From TrEMBL:
Cellular component GO terms held in the UniProt record: DNA polymerase III complex
One example GO MF annotation: 3'-5' exonuclease activity
Record flagged with keyword Manganese: no
Protein's name in the database: DNA-directed DNA polymerase
Pfam families linked: DNA_pol3_delta2
Keyword list, A-Z: DNA-directed DNA polymerase, Nucleotidyltransferase, Transferase
Length: 349
């Protein structure tokens, strides 16, 4: 099995921290891994799980152990059929529910079935509802030697302080252009020739993902870019008062709530950057955002970011992407300069 840091160099620091702790038998019972969407948090968690389950890790003496890839545990894990690994992720409600955490707790106290260790991964631990987070505290407060919990957190999404205080936190950075491009190009070459996106699509995918390579791959090989371009065009038309808000909001419906809010969050963050004299991430929207940055104070951009957070919280109750887009669009249009009525022509004497 290859070293995850060779495939994704930006994971190296967090990965080597775990390697050294495993070699010294000092791995914490619970880890939080924080990073932007699409930087490889789940790949890192899988590498850690494989290492902890492996019967005969390689390179342990050097302090940089990796899973052997050949033992029974590695084969079961590679086949996604290992009974001592469980993954808990948001369900239809977009939240990790208390029933899932109760299942995790039962899994944690049970004996391993075929390995010497168990691993539980909570993908998007920042999406734990309050009851689930409180239930998780009981497991965190009573650590067991044969189980490791890995909590994946998206940057900017909060975790309860009581949960965070009982875990060790590691952070994955966003890779630089060179590493992101190299990883993306390698993955694209693994696709059938007729399914490989062109260079312009890959470049745009990296721009939209903020250099998060796994997210960029999803964008480049899916329909996100086309849907986003249509939504941006409707957004611009609405800002110029050429179409009603309902028509503009329909373009966001196809994106779904998460991607809709992610777009509005990106645009609001870009507006804040421009007002502060920085450069935007989404260059396709830069003309409109630069125009707004000239006439609006910084607090307006942060007000829009707060509204996105409110909409994301409403997602727990299955909020409509179209309705949330409408609400945000109306607030964005308030940033446009108010046209003053033309002065009346002087009355002829």
């Amino acid at each position: 099995m290859t070293d995850i840091a060779q495939d994704m160099p930006w994971l190296k620091r967090a990965w080597q921290t775990v390697q050294s702790r495993v070699a010294e038998d000092r791995l914490p019972h619970a880890l939080i891994l924080a990073g932007e969407r699409g930087v490889g948090k789940r790949a890192w968690a899988n590498a850690v799980a494989g290492l902890l389950l492996c019967e005969k890790p390689l390179n342990r003496e050097s302090g940089q152990p990796i899973a052997c890839g050949h033992c029974k545990q590695c084969e079961l894990f590679a086949a996604s059929s290992h009974p001592d690994v469980r993954v808990y992720a948001p369900e239809k409600s977009r939240m990790v529910k208390v029933d899932q955490i109760r299942a995790l707790s039962s899994f944690a106290v049970a004996s391993p079935q075929v390995a010497h260790h168990k691993v539980a991964i909570i993908d998007r631990a920042d999406q734990l509802n309050i009851n689930a987070a409180n239930a998780l505290l009981k497991t965190l407060e009573e650590p067991l030697p044969d189980v490791t919990l890995i909590l994946l957190q998206e940057s900017g999404r909060p975790l309860l302080p009581t949960v965070r205080s009982r875990c060790q936190t590691l952070t994955i950075p966003v890779p630089g252009n060179e590493d992101a491009n190299r990883w993306l190009a390698t993955r694209v070459q693994e696709l059938a020739e007729d399914a490989r996106p062109g260079a312009d699509v890959l470049s745009k995918a990296l721009m939209l993902s903020g250099n998060a390579p796994r997210l960029a791959f999803d964008y480049a090989t899916g329909d996100f870019i086309g849907l986003r371009d249509a939504a941006l065009e409707r957004f611009k038309e609405f800002m110029k008062s050429r179409i009603p808000v309902g028509e503009a909001a329909k373009a966001f419906k196809a994106l779904g709530l998460e991607d809709t809010l992610w777009l509005f969050e990106t645009w609001a963050a870009d507006l804040a950057r421009l007002i502060a004299g920085g450069t935007p991430q989404d260059t396709d929207a830069s003309d409109m955002l630069e125009f707004l940055a000239k006439t609006n104070p910084p607090w307006r951009a942060h007000e829009l970011l707060d509204m996105v957070k409110e909409s994301r919280a409403a997602g727990v109750y299955n909020a409509s992407p179209e309705l949330e887009a409408s609400r945000l669009l109306i607030e964005w249009q308030k940033l446009m300069p108010v046209k003053r009525p033309a002065a009346r022509a002087a009355v002829a004497r």
